[in-house]
Write a structure and sequence with these properties.
Elements lengths: L5 E2 L19 E13 L2 E11 L6 E7 L5 E7 L5 E2 L5 E4 L2 E4 L2 E9 L24 E10 L2 E10 L2 E9 L5 E8 L3 E6 L8 E7 L9 E6 L6 E7 L10 E4 L4 E3 L2 E9 L5 E8 L7 E5 L9 H4 L7 E8 L5 E8 L3 E8 H6 L1 E2 L4
Antiparallel strand pairs: 1-25, 2-3, 3-9, 4-5, 6-7, 7-8, 10-11, 11-12, 12-13, 14-15, 15-16, 16-17, 18-20, 19-20, 20-21, 21-22, 22-26, 23-24, 24-25
The protein binds alpha-D-mannopyranose.
Length: about 350
């Protein structure tokens, strides 16, 4: 299927072998889903680094964090009848779910938006406490008034929720624990307050009635969220039939807030689409793309740790006001870049399909 993304010819920009593992005995299995921001005139990625030990033939092994922050390795014989391992990303053992890798977040920067390196003097962000023992993932970065707000997925045996940390200098961080409890992820705070109120998109999941839909919430302080509204649902028999989730913060355009979102179908293929919200009241969805704007087609998107995935949670809007570079995770293993035109995305919005 054709899409409207102009992929960087340098893709993949980053592969697991490009960085050093955090800890002796672990390997980087996946580099994926970077949050994106500008700081000191450079483009920065806060990339998800997913690690595990080198896998032995008959053993499945993965790290988890203890509540005090040390790493513990769990090893399970592959032929154990109590092991259910059908998804590369998550397993169930003796009735308990685990992730097959442990993720932390690492800072990279670049002068040209293509070649990234790890600058000296900046530390990784790692899981802290009992709600992040399976790691932290997929960070969105929102910049409001000299402060960066980091919303990320916090995973533990207690469930998957949204954590918040803030920083001004990327060296010291303030942690606010879990701001949206399980099951919730894909949280992106708007880069402007509307009438003095913070807004965020997020993705609670309902196991029985309901589904995996995008919701909007309001907050007086970015920590306490309320007035939740469900604004974007999955569509039957479509590329976005199983799960939908927000990408990065919405982009202000003359037509409204433009959000690029990801969605999976029943076969776990992840594509990108877009929708438009009213500029003064983002709970009003004005329009939505019918077809995806990006579909996994390149080799590095089709095959990898978890193939057929393009997933974005970070972008840069260029000074021309029309070009955006999205950075994205390809097949849950590589970090890639692609350019879009905001006008072209807007031309594909269907005003009667919201
Ligand atoms: C899903 C996938 C994984 C992720 C977990 C926890 O299984 O998105 O990549 O690690 O959720 O967030």
């Amino acid at each position: 299927m054709k899409d409207i993304a102009t992929r960087f010819k340098e893709n993949p920009l980053l592969s697991p072998a490009d960085l050093e593992p955090s800890t002796p005995g672990l390997e980087i299995t996946c580099l994926l889903n970077p949050g994106v921001f500008t700081f000191e005139d450079k483009t920065w990625l806060i990339v998800r680094v997913a690690e595990r030990p080198a896998q032995k033939k008959n053993l499945l092994s993965f790290p988890i964090l203890t509540e005090t922050g040390s790493i513990q390795i769990i090893e399970i014989p592959k032929n154990d009848p109590e092991l259910k391992a059908t998804d590369a990303r998550v397993i169930n053992y003796k009735g308990v779910d685990y992730l097959t890798t442990l993720s932390h977040l690492r800072l990279l920067c670049s002068d040209d938006g293509i070649n990234f390196h790890e600058p000296e003097g900046y530390q990784s962000l790692v899981g802290q406490g009992m709600l992040q023992t399976f790691g932290i993932e997929d960070c969105r970065v929102t910049f409001i008034r000299n402060k960066y707000y980091l919303t990320f997925t916090a995973v533990s045996g207690n469930g998957v929720g949204v954590g918040l940390r803030t920083t001004r200098d990327w060296k010291s961080f303030q942690s606010y624990g879990m701001i949206l409890p399980p099951h919730n992820k894909d949280c992106a705070i708007f880069e402007e307050k509307i009438n003095g109120t913070f807004y965020a998109l997020h993705r609670p999941s309902s196991v029985d009635i309901g589904g995996n839909y995008i919701w909007l919430a309001e907050s007086p302080d970015s920590i306490h969220w309320g007035n939740h509204k469900c604004i974007i649902k999955t569509r039957e028999n479509s590329w976005d039939s199983a799960r939908v989730g927000a990408g990065a913060s919405p982009i202000r355009t003359s037509k409204g807030w433009l959000e690029i979102y990801h969605a999976a179908n029943q076969q776990h293929q992840y594509c990108l689409g877009a929708f438009l919200m009213d500029i003064n009241d983002p709970s009003i969805v004005i329009a939505r793309t019918e077809a995806p704007i990006m579909v996994p087609t390149a080799d590095y998107e089709v095959s990898g740790f978890f193939g057929n995935v393009v997933f974005t949670n970070g972008h840069i809007v260029h000074p021309d006001g029309d070009t955006i570079t999205i950075y994205y995770g390809a097949s849950d293993e590589f970090v890639c870049g692609a350019k879009f035109s905001i006008q072209e995305i807007c031309s594909l919005l269907k005003y009667d399909h919201a």
